[in-house]
Amino acid sequence: MLVIVYFLSTLFYSIECFINENDDDSWKELSFSLRSDNGTIKSAHIQWTDRFDDSFAYAYTNENRSDLKFLYDKPRPELFVTNKFIMEAFTQFLDFFQNRTKIQKVTVTIPSMTDDLKKVTKRNNKYATKPNVDSFRFNSYDSSLYTEFLKLSSGIPKILKISFYYYPERTENILNGSILYHSKVRKVGELDLRTVESDISDAGLNQLECESISVRSSTITNAGINKILKEWQDGLRSTRYLKVVSDDVQKAEIMDGVSKRTLQRGVWEIKNRYNVSATVTVFDTYQMTYSGDREPLLRQDSRDCEDTSQILKMADACYTNSSWFFPGKKERIIPKAILLSIGLYLIYMAVDQYQIAMREVESRECSDVLADCENIPFNQTLIPPFYNYLQDFTISPRYDLSYCLVPKSLSTIGTSTICYINDPVSFTNDNRTISTETYGKRKRKVPERDLDEVREELTGGKSHHSTFGSIARDEFDRLMREDHAIRRAIHRMYYYDFQLLGYPM
């Protein structure tokens, strides 16, 4: 009964997996972008990657020219020429978005949501679905864009990143910090606003429940950061990483009342009530630049460099700045892991050296034994057998097989097997079977064509181990003729081969 139940459950599970596999309409990536030239939007682009890693692209424009630069993109886009190219492209993008059940990453790059685009997002589509999106990236300052797409998707995204549409916007616009109060934004796994200036307040930052937060704001105060540190020490926050770039950072105000241990200048170690440690790093100035003559990666026109920045890195286990890679462990686990790795490596090297030494000892011992045996006449130190069994070898030239017949060790089955593979038709026609062969019936005449092939191989010098016609062969032939014991042993080993091939004894 249990076997039947197990079989039926396995069958139903297999059918369900097969149906889900066929019905899987998930995509890995979907993106929409508007490309401009000198402030004028020239084209709209849709690109997607399905679950099989195949990428496709559409390009919409109102210019029917063959020298368009985006025609050389990879993947090469399918071109659509229309007057209302922005509307038609965005409609197609939304159709793709609302016909998937899951999309790993969605990217939208537009300067702002026009009234026509808002109408498209609010259209009545009874067949539309709400896809589950893992990662959203919006290259726009328009908060209505984030709100609409968060409304059109299901679940809470793991990553939300907001950046600028074009670089000059970074010094002209300020992101509205009210987006942090959105129910989904508050609980995303990773919130990344580090490339846009925002007016986020202490209250907006404090109400976030994200595990990773990166923000840039001049309105966040030292007292707000200090409050987050104290709440983390009290075990009230699950934040693992926090980076705040602000104008006025005062180390004394940030670390006021926080239990800490100084690691170096501007770097402290703090612990929470669960004995989990984190590092706090405060820089007076912060600037990231490319090498050579390139411009700064992060730059504000009103300052020579970023005035100040403050970085808080919180992890479940750490002793140094790399702590957040090991959540949930105790402090100083990295030095222990290093010592453990070194110990395992030393053990591995010791075992390896021992194996090498043992191989050398075995090789040396074997060489000494063989050297001592060279001066001993053949067969004088060996105990003669109690009874001389026949030393037989059966061969199958067709398959390059040779079988040594050891009496009472499946020799009859081995002989019949070689007979069968040499000539299966005759073997079957004689009403013989491998399992019913007897000692008296197992010998069978080898076909003449096989004998000719063996003779040709032995005398033609074609095989890699052949010594026919060589100087070494003549020398060993002389030694064999002079030593009767060697010659007698050779006769015993190859007696039937000599008889079968017709060689003189």
From TrEMBL:
Protein name: Glycosyltransferase family 92 protein
GO molecular function terms listed in the Swiss-Prot or TrEMBL record: chondroitin 4-sulfotransferase activity
Signal peptide annotation: 1-17
Gene Ontology biological process: chondroitin sulfate proteoglycan biosynthetic process; positive regulation of response to oxidative stress
Statement: the UniProt record of this protein carries the keyword Signal: yes
Gene Ontology CC: membrane
Domain of life: Eukaryota
Lineage of producing organism: Eukaryota, Metazoa, Ecdysozoa, Nematoda, Chromadorea
InterPro entries: Chst-1-like (IPR007669), Sulfotransferase (IPR005331)
Keywords: Signal
